[in-house]
């Protein structure tokens, strides 16, 4: 090999490494953009739930947030639905999603019931540390975290 050949091979190698690095950066930024972003609203309602959360040391970042969902069934049928998160709160550097207990749809504290009702929220916002389930009838906050083994 001559001196010029080594330079050309080295130049090609540098270009290939730069392209691979650039594609990796683009991929990593794109995948983090797909994750749900934690909203911050100025219009947080003043209610008993907010008072209870703040008394427990949480800072309320956002109130009720609607997450629209569109589903394709087969090739033609399009279904629409939505999920609601009652509040987003922060304590130190940890972010939590908040679901408030409802009389008409109480959460049964079994593994399958908690999974079915709350796991979708954790999957939408993986950057959250967990979910706080607030039951205002007894003024209690239950912290729920999911540990998924794949």
Helix content, binned percent: 25-40%
Give Rg in angstroms.
Answer: 23 Å
- What is the molecular shape? elongated
Look at the structure and give the mean pLDDT: 85
* Terminal Cα span: 50 Å
SSE run: HHEEEEEHEE
Secondary structure: number of strands: 7
| Coarse structural class | alpha+beta
Our count of helices gives 3
Describe the strand arrangement of the main beta sheet, using strand numbers.
Answer: 1-4-5-6-7
β-strand percent reads 25-35%
Low-confidence stretches: 31-35
Summarize the main sheet. 5 strands, mixed
Would you kindly provide a brief summary of this structure?
The protein has 150 residues and is of the alpha+beta class. It has helices at 3-34, 48-55, 111-124; strands at 59-62, 65-73, 77-85, 87-91, 94-100, 130-135, 140-144.
SSE topology:
Blueprint: H1 3-34, H2 48-55, E1 59-62, E2 65-73, E3 77-85, E4 87-91, E5 94-100, H3 111-124, E6 130-135, E7 140-144
Parallel strand pairs: 5-6
Antiparallel strand pairs: 1-4, 2-3, 4-5, 6-7
